[in-house]
Write a structure and sequence with these properties.
Layout lengths: L1 E7 L3 H15 L4 E4 L4 H7 L5 H9 L2 E6 L14 H12 L3 E7 L12 H4 L3 E7 L11 E4 L5 E4 L6 H16 L4 E6 L5 H14 L6 E6 H10 L6 E4 L1 H12 L9 E5 L4 E5 L16 H13 L4 H16 L2 E2 L9 E2 L2 H14 L2
Parallel strand pairs: 1-2, 1-3, 3-12, 5-10, 8-9, 8-10, 13-14
Antiparallel strand pairs: 4-5, 4-11, 6-7, 11-12
Helix pairs in contact: 1-10, 1-12, 6-7, 8-9, 10-11, 11-12
């Protein structure tokens, strides 16, 4: 088992260091290699995704990334900016399914803008189709019309094969959770959504143990706020998933807590949801939990090490229950700690739980 770690930029360096330390505690047999991506890669090689990193991706089982970007590189042309490295590695890895969990930790109930009784028990996972739909459909563009005005257009297109692939991934994941899947579309208006619903219904026949529900996207957006505990796994197209996953993330109260995964047929990329936060980089105040939980997701989904993943998750729960917080979630803390000390506390909990 080999993991390629790409720290990236800003606080990515610190949070991936924390995640690797926790990884080595629960899975000492995992081999770790390192590579460059983003602005740090550009500074050293002149490219945001060097060929050496691409070669390393091909020999690893999974990739753990920190974050990319920063104002330092904002004036570069698009193909040289740090974000181009992220898009590039997604293409190299062939990832098509983005997994965004939204779980509310009991000790942090008060950090959400929603009422405690509404969010207590929230544990949902949004599976977003990542490389199709309106973000990639053709034709697209902005045309100047004969009267001097302009017309902008994009194309929302999905094939049955693309829908089946993401649906099977979501059903398989739901089988390992609470066996409930909500497929989100806009089938009352969009032909692409009618095909989406038809294909998902067909795939469901192969997963009789999973309860399938269809829901329009506007209703889903409302239900995530009204009654978020009703959801287990949500599967949806690219645009809808982009919006709904950000909405769901705010239920938890802090982006620093949230992990994510982007999965392909054979490889997957894991990273915290938060950005590179260059303003706090190197100050030992970044919240490492999102990166640490991304490592836990990696153990679960890429290496089938469910017990090791659960040990990390339980350790995080226990540390938070003791009132230990990083600055971003310190509203009710008994002890406010930095990145390194939070990591040490989590490792200590893992050891005590053995």
């Amino acid at each position: 088992m080999k993991v390629l770690v790409l720290p990236g930029d800003g606080i990515g360096q610190e949070v991936t260091e924390a995640a690797v330390a926790v990884l080595k505690e629960v899975a000492p047999g995992i081999e770790v290699d390192y590579g460059l991506i983003g602005g740090s890669a550009f500074d050293e090689t002149g490219m945001p995704l060097p060929d050496e990193t691409v070669d390393k991706v091909k020999t690893c089982g999974a990739v753990l990334m920190g974050a990319v970007g920063g104002s330092k590189w904002d004036t570069l042309e698009h193909k040289l900016r740090p974000e181009a490295g992220l898009l590039g590695i997604r293409q190299v890895m062939g990832v098509y399914a983005n997994l965004r969990p939204a779980r509310v930790f009991k000790p942090l109930l008060a950090s959400s803008t929603l009422k405690k009784e509404v969010i207590d028990g929230v544990d949902m996972l949004i599976v977003r189709e990542l490389i199709g739909g309106i973000y990639f459909g053709e034709p697209r563009g902005i045309d100047r019309l004969d009267d001097g005005s302009y017309r902008g257009y994009n194309t929302l297109v999905y094939t049955s094969a693309e829908i089946e692939r993401i649906a099977r991934k979501a059903f398989t994941i739901a089988l390992g959770r609470r066996k409930s899947l909500t497929s989100v579309d806009k089938a009352n208006v969009l032909e692409s959504s009618r095909l989406w619903r038809k294909v998902v219904d067909e795939v469901s026949k192969d997963f009789p143990g999973v309860n399938l529900e269809h829901m329009y996207v506007d209703n889903c957006a409302m239900q995530i706020i009204r009654e978020p505990t009703q959801f287990d796994v949500i599967v949806t197209q690219n645009l809808f998933g982009d919006i709904l996953s950000d909405e769901a993330s705010m239920i938890t109260g802090s982006l620093g807590m949230l992990p994510s995964a982007s999965m392909g047929e054979t490889k997957a990329l894991y990273e915290p949801v938060h950005g590179s936060a260059p303003d706090i980089a190197g100050k030992d105040i970044a919240n490492p939990i999102g990166a640490i939980l991304s490592a836990a997701m990696m153990l679960r989904y890429s290496f089938d090490m469910v017990e090791a993943s659960q040990r990390i998750e339980k350790a995080v729960d226990n540390v938070l229950a003791k009132g230990i917080r990083t600055r971003d979630i310190s509203y009710s803390a008994q002890e406010v700690v930095g990145t390194k000390r939070m990591t040490e506390y989590i490792i200590q909990e893992i050891r005590e739980g053995n």
